[in-house]
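Weekly modeling sync, notes
Attendees: S.R. (lead), two postdocs, one rotation student

Agenda item 3: backlog of single-chain predictions. S.R. asked that every request posted to the team notebook include the full sequence so nobody has to chase files. The rotation student volunteered to paste the first one in as an example of the format we agreed on. Action items at the bottom.

Example entry:
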Amino acid sequence: MAIDFLELGPNTSKATVLLAHGAGAPMDSPAMTAISQALAAQDLRVVRFEFAYMANRRTDGTKRPPPRADKLNHEYLAAVDALQIDGPMIIGGKSMGGRVASMIADELFNADRIAGLLCVGYPFHPIGKPEKLRTEHLMGLQTPTLICQGTRDPFGSTDEVAAYDLSSAIQMSWFEDGDHDLKPRKRVSGFTHADHLKSMAATVAVWADRIGS
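Predicted structure, as returned to the notebook:
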């Protein structure tokens, strides 16, 4: 199956960020589009793609559930292979997309094919099941990693993540009162969603410069 890419941002950027979507929304969902636009505004080249189950929804009209996350590893690797770029590449994604990228990151990093891993709203555990952690592979992760997370994310809040044994290669960037999309309640936090997205993108740009230098 051919991979369709959705590109945004300058081709002259210092880094290309390859992003995969979450479990239930496509690559052009409002959340993915907002993240991509914010990153592109920081002069990063952003490339999105879809896993086959999501792409098939566009043609057959069904809402088939995603396969188990590790069953998508080969599709993410195929996207990396298909994307021909010059310069540093960062892989990652929103929620499940970032989780899949995290499972293949070290293989690519150790082969000098990527510079880092970016996860926006990492699903540390299923909602309501904090005991079912998805962190075992994150304990020994070698790839420079940035995880942007809302403090009240139901897939992993500040207090929960503080108790995890994560690799020192992982940098957490927290967004006050943000949910799984980094969206805060303005009356509680004093921030807007746009504020958090702009701050997230600025943080990513600084981090990308550091790991790419």
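Discussion: group reviewed the output briefly. The chain has a mean pLDDT of 95.
Action items: rotation student to repeat for the remaining queue; S.R. to check formatting next week.
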